[in-house]
Write a structure and sequence with these properties.
With 105 residues, the chain is an alpha/beta fold. 37% of the residues lie in helices and 28% in strands. A five-stranded mixed sheet has the order 1-3-2-4-5. It is globular, with a radius of gyration of 12 Å. The protein starts with a strand and ends with a helix.
Length: 105
């Protein structure tokens, strides 16, 4: 299951952690977010132990959303050692996200 990032745990689980993190910014009311949700879940299983993959509910975690200037959802950020190295806005395929993760690794 994808990790749930929050305003409270984001610093410890993403910013101060070595390695790759994939963060899906979403909301329950967002149709396109529900389309990409199963892809994020699949990736979290496939990359378990190698990449931290999770979701940020923008309605419940406004600090992170504002920090990264999230204006459209779904937005997926790929971070390496706390720095954004790639970004995907809108619905996409699993292949596109896998390619972004592999490039960061």
């Amino acid at each position: 299951m994808a990790f749930e990032f929050t305003d409270a745990n984001f610093k410890d689980t993403v910013l101060e952690k070595e390695g790759i993190a994939v963060v899906d910014f979403w909301a329950e009311w967002c149709g396109p977010c529900r389309m990409i949700g199963p892809i994020i879940e699949e990736l979290s299983k496939e990359y378990d132990g190698k990449v931290t993959i999770g979701k940020v509910n923008v309605d419940h975690n406004p600090e992170i959303s504002m920090k990264y200037g999230i204006r459209s959802i779904p937005t997926v950020l790929v971070l390496k050692n706390g720095e954004v190295v790639d970004k995907q806005v809108g619905v996409t395929t699993k292949k596109v996200l896998t390619d972004k993760i592999e490039a960061a690794l």
